[in-house]
Amino acid sequence: MSAPHGRTGRPPLTEARRxxxxxxxxxxxxxxxxxxxxxxxxxxxxxxxxxxxxxxxWRYFPNKESCVRPLFSAGIDAIVxxxxxxxxxxxxxxxxxxxxxNRESLLGDPDRDTVxxxxxxxxxxxxxxAVWLQTYDEAEPAFARALAERAGLPxxxxxxxxxxxxFNAALRAAVEHHAWRTVDEPxxxxxxxxxxxxxxxxxxxxxxxxxx
Length: 212
What we know:
Elements: H1 15-36, H2 43-50, H3 54-60, H4 69-85, H5 92-102, H6 112-121, H7 126-151, H8 158-181, H9 189-211
Pfam family, one: TetR_C_14
GO molecular function, one term: transcription cis-regulatory region binding
Protein name: TetR family transcriptional regulator
């Protein structure tokens, strides 16, 4: 009797589980980068620390520096969600607070400490700096689309494109300001997370005031 046709072996991972695995790899990579530097870290080490094979690391990421992208993009995705929910006349800070309460992953909620360490590394690791800047470069069109939807404008309109550039610059400056300013300031994790949240909230308020 012939064997039944169809898929054998392990079932495919769900999209949610794939996202979790990517985050686990990202956290493992950052821990190693902080402890021993990027150059001394291998894909095999990242896989071992994340509890996966090196082959799986390379299946998800083209190189070791790109492993950190999920930590960079988590906060950006949440800001896009905030912009889509932002209604005329509503303080953007209130939308941000609401989204922060609803999303455990905003700015990486338990990952905010990790993101701070990672951003500090971009000062001395050019390849990580390139990933950091590329993440924001790719986020700008998403900001523009969300702002265009809010204003009822075409997705390729100039005004939301300029506003998106303002948001992009403000967010990057805020996260870098917090990460670099606190490098020599010991603080418990809760204080550090609250500080980053307050800094980003202030940046959003400045830009929203300019848009008004």
